[in-house]
Each structure stands twice: as structure tokens, then as C-alpha cells.
Amino acid sequence: PDAYVAVARGYNDWLSQEHTAVAPDRLLGVALLPATSLDDAMEEYYRVSALPGICSAILHHWPNGGAGPAEEDDRFWRAVVEHG
User: Fold this and answer.
1) pLDDT tens profile 32-66
2) I need a surface site. Which of 5, 13, 59, 60 has the fewest CB within 10 A?
């Protein structure tokens, strides 16, 4: 899990600092949120929402890191709605 979180963070940093920075008027970044745990997904969501060039985010699994939805995911969806 730690390696996966580090890869997601590294990709998101590259996306913001290198890729979208080339032409911020036409390149928008879709950040990768780690699917290791709800806390990891939420932490990275808040972090990337402040990065320049990032306009959206994608999850490859449910926020809880599992293959299906769980009640705890509501905390993530609520944060997304409230934070924007």
C-alpha cells in the first residue's frame, strides 16, 4: 500500500508540475486517488485539489479500497460534495 500511495502522489505531482504546466490554458489533469484505504483516498483528494492544473480525480476502486461499496465510503462522497 505505501508504494501504491507513493506512485499515485508522484504521478499527481508530475501531472500538475510538468504536464499541465506546459499549456495550462488547454491541458487539464485528472489526478489518481489511491485505492488502498478510505483515509489514503481522502488525504490525496484534499492534497490534489490544491494543485494547479488538476481539475478532477479518478478512483480505480471504491474509496474504502475494496471491490465494492461500504457505508464508510459516505464519508468520502460527503467530503467531495462539500469541498467541491
Assistant:
1) 999 899 999 999 999 999 999 999 999 988 999 88
2) 60
